[in-house]
Design brief:
Layout (H helix, E strand, L loop, with lengths): L1 H29 L9 E7 L19 E8 L3 H31 L7 H17 L4 H62 L5 H18 L2 E4 L5 E5 L2 E5 L2 E2 L2 E5 L3 H5 L13 E5 L2 E6 L4 H10 L12 H24 L33 H4 L23 H8 L7 H41 L3 H34 L7
Antiparallel strand pairs: 1-2, 3-4, 4-5, 5-6, 7-8, 8-9
Length: 498
């Protein structure tokens, strides 16, 4: 009798286990298109038979059924870690490539609106004046194009400063987003710990946490370390951003405006360039250096120019420094020749552009205040002030004008400085774009591997449901058979011969 009734318990355990497996399959199918959902499965385990039988009981050595030992997630920590690593690198390179692309668009090189085209027009005007020194209109055109060239330098420098300000605002927003995600991960850690300690399943919360961890990797290159109790610690640059159920906020500090990053104080006085960096909000002065993520790429964009002049500093500050060099070279070279020439009336030419370099003999004012790219302007106001004649060579001599026109082909002139800058920016932009493309391909591949392991395959779930359904039906048939056996045993035993 006891073994017969234990068979009912065994069949019942199978019904309960298979029903739970069907519920899990239904949950999987219901979330087949839910972003971030990880496929779950019911883990089944056999229930052992009676180990110490009671008096007069018999044990046939067969177990007593099946039980659900847990509901696990089909996640692979190695694939998850690989995805986060690839996301971190791809996000950093994408930010850098995007900054270069925006910078190139603002510079407009090559193109009719670019500085190279404006400089070429400016030098051609000097040729025109030299070819017709007795024509006032050519000098007027020269002054107009000179002002246009100066305006182009101003506009491009301002565009770079605006891009820098936009990048800093974006980075600040990303840091705020990082802090919010870190607080969410800390909260999820606590909730998952509470649920698992109470014997429950926190798989959906674990999915939310994994999504947040991937986002943190894309933002600040966060790395993770799992604990024995199911919580996850998050690190940025080797420092704990999330430790168990507590999180630490980051703060973006350093240069607030572009002039500080470019090396100028509020009054325009040259000073040591300031960088933009991360610190702990509750520990000012303690820097945090992210090794990847969008924020790391943005910090490279916002970095000050290299102090050694190698051009390996920030994307935008290096471009601005080159514009300063172009402005200074242009003003110094033209002023040096123009100040020694004479006008049609025989007057000394003086400075054509406002002197920018304190070493320039025509410079006045004591110190250079502010970036040269914004200080440069045309010093002449009327066309008759343009000087192209050598002293004593006659009113319509144009020998100095020809020398100024030849500056356009100088290997050390403003054109050469700007041409080298454009080539460097183009090369670095192409390299950043190529690296970003390769990194994104690697990230996409890692994502497909992770999804292939964790996502729901409705065909696979359907097959599993059929198998589980058949197991449920078989357990029900066992229960029916036992019922028939018990009916015979209880209601028909002893009726023979009546």
């Amino acid at each position: 009798m006891s073994s017969t009734f234990s068979g009912i318990s065994t069949a019942l355990s199978s019904l309960i286990a298979q029903r739970t497996a069907l519920d899990v399959a239904g949950q999987n199918i219901a979330n087949a298109n839910t972003p971030g959902y990880t496929r779950q499965r019911a883990d089944l385990g056999a229930v052992n038979g009676t180990q110490v039988p009671s008096m007069f009981a018999t044990n046939n050595g067969v177990g007593t059924g099946v039980q659900v030992t847990g509901i696990s997630r089909a996640s692979d920590p190695f694939l998850d870690a690989k995805l986060r690593t690839q996301t971190s690198g791809a996000a950093s390179l994408a930010a850098l490539a995007g900054a270069y692309s925006t910078l190139e668009s603002g510079l407009g090189e090559p193109g009719g609106s670019g500085l190279s085209s404006q400089l070429q027009t400016f030098w051609n005007d000097w040729h025109d004046v030299s070819n017709a020194p007795d024509t006032l209109s050519t000098r007027s055109v020269l002054l107009d194009d000179a002002r246009q060239t100066v305006d182009t330098i101003h506009t491009q420098y301002t565009s770079i400063a605006t891009q820098w300000s936009d990048a800093r605002t974006t980075t600040s927003s990303l840091v705020d987003q990082t802090n919010t995600l870190a607080a969410n991960v800390a909260d999820l850690n606590q909730r998952i710990l509470d649920i698992t300690n109470n014997g429950g399943s926190a798989n959906e919360l674990a999915d939310q946490r994994d999504q947040a961890l991937t986002q943190l990797a894309g933002l600040v290159g966060a790395t993770t370390q799992a604990r024995q109790d199911g919580q996850v610690d998050v690190y940025v640059g080797g420092n704990a951003l999330v430790f168990g159920s507590s999180s630490h906020a980051l703060a973006l500090t350093g240069a607030q405006v572009f002039s500080q990053a470019a090396g100028y104080a509020t009054d325009g006085t040259p000073t040591t360039p300031q960088d933009v960096h991360l610190e702990w909000a509750d520990s000012p002065g303690q820097r945090v250096v992210p090794t990847g993520g969008t924020v790391a790429g943005q910090l490279r964009v916002l970095a000050p120019a290299a102090t050694d002049g190698s051009g390996t500093g920030g994307v935008l500050t290096e471009a601005a420094r080159r514009l300063d060099q172009v402005a200074t070279t242009l003003a110094t070279d033209v002023n040096t020749l123009h100040s020694g020439a004479t006008t049609v009336s025989g007057a000394t030419g003086g400075a054509f552009f406002t002197p920018l370099d304190p070493s320039d003999p025509t410079f006045s004012g004591g110190t250079a205040l502010g970036p040269a790219a914004l200080r440069i302007s045309v010093a002449l106001t009327t066309a008759d002030q343009v000087a192209v004649a050598a002293p004593g060579a006659g009113a319509y001599d144009a020998s100095v004008g020809q020398q100024i026109a030849a500056l356009g082909s100088s290997t050390t002139g403003a054109d050469a400085v700007w041409s080298q800058a454009v080539v460097e920016i183009g090369d670095r932009s192409a390299a950043a774009t190529s690296r970003s493309s390769v990194a994104e391909s690697a990230r996409a591949s890692a994502e497909q591997d992770q999804l292939g392991n964790a996502s729901v395959d409705t065909d696979q779930e359907t097959v599993g449901m059929i198998s589980t359904q058949r197991s449920y039906q078989a357990a029900a048939r066992v229960l029916t058979t036992l019922d028939d056996m018990l009916d015979t045993l209880i209601n028909k035993t002893g009726l023979v011969g009546r």
